Amino acid sequence: MRTHAHPVSTAWLVVAGLLAFMLLLAGCGSSDNNTTGKELTKVGKGEGALSLISWAGYVEAEWTKPFEQKTGCKVSDKIAGTSDEMVQLMRTGQYDGVSASGNASARLVDGGDVDPVNVSLVPNYKTIFSELKDQPYNTFDGVHYGIPHGRGANLLMWNTDDVKPAPTSWDVILDPKKAAKYKGKISAYDDPIYIADAAVYLKAHQPDLGIENPYELNEEQFNAAVELLKEQRANVGEYWSEAAKQIAAFANGDVQVGTTWQYQYFELTGAGEPVAASPASQGFLPSEGATGWSDTWMISSQAKHPNCMYMWMDWIVSPKVNAEVAQFFGEAPAQSLACEQTEEKSFCAKYHAENPAFWKRVYFWETPVSECGNGSSDCMNYNDWLNAWTAIKG
Known about the structure:
The chain has helices spanning 18-26, 61-71, 83-90, 102-110, 171-174, 176-179, 195-205, 219-233, 243-252, 262-270, 306-316, 319-329, 347-350, 356-359, 382-393, and strands at 49-54, 74-79, 97-100, 114-115, 139-140, 143-144, 147-153, 155-159, 186-189, 236-240, 257-260, 275-278, 290-300, 332-333, 362-364. It is α/β, with parallel strands linked by helices. It has 2 domains: 49-151 and 293-354, Periplasmic binding protein-like II (D-Maltodextrin-Binding Protein, domain 2), CATH 3.40.190.10; 153-291 and 368-393, 3-Layer(aba) Sandwich (D-Maltodextrin-Binding Protein, domain 2). The radius of gyration is 20 Å and the shape is globular. The chain starts with 17 loop residues before the first helix and ends with a helix. Mean pLDDT is 89; it is low at 3-36.
């Protein structure tokens, strides 16, 4: 997913034999979640250490040092480049917690890799934005499995010198005829979850398919999204997963338009590059809406330092710290009181932190499972998405 201030290699994604390995890790896509795990009933004395897996920019010295001084829990952090890598790392049992996105959380719950979270032991949970609570990417069968951290929308970014007129729709990269104008210059996100972006587009442009949730696709809907991305393949110049590489590609002129995150946009504009993006620069989403992420701190079922992990979950969503993380990373904070703590007074407005109407048009990542929200069990699961993504790029 997101590699920011400390770019990490994702070469493991392409090593021989990984596909079979990941199919094993992904599981069958069942929604029969492990909701019987143990849940801490009281936070005791810290164990003196804490081992985390996070997106780059989530665990920085600016807020880890005060945490260590306050709790005595010395923090070590492993940066992951993708959600699949997070799942793999969590299944080693060597870490206490993870900042999981929605395309990993259900897999971790299904696999028994994380325990339920007793939110009453996290005082700052009370003032988390209400629309981030009890969501399908952090709550399963009515059981809380994590603490919301922050959220963001996946943006459409373009070079203003090369892409005219300014696009207002994803059709600039997904409509085969329009995308052909930028053949070889399109940048697309390198992850099976990108199939959902195509589903969001089809939901608006082919309503007869009946798509409601871009992560709950029956075979017909799924095949339509996959075929759209297979058509797009000829026009894609790069599939990216590392922010630094995409920044370089835009700066060098290797790509001109594509999906991105706020981080890349602000890095490029800060360097004087002629790029624009929505919603960050214009206050709107593309006409179809967009996918996005809402990350959740989850505790390992094999955590060696559970007390320190609970202390961390409360610390990272405390108003001042959550504000610091959101500004550093470039996302909307999860903590409603964080907006009072931001150094940039317009920050929360720019990131739509207090605008529920904006987030209603963002489809937060979820792990695709076979059980659809309408009660049927004919949706394509994560294994199907993984296989299809390999075929799309092939």
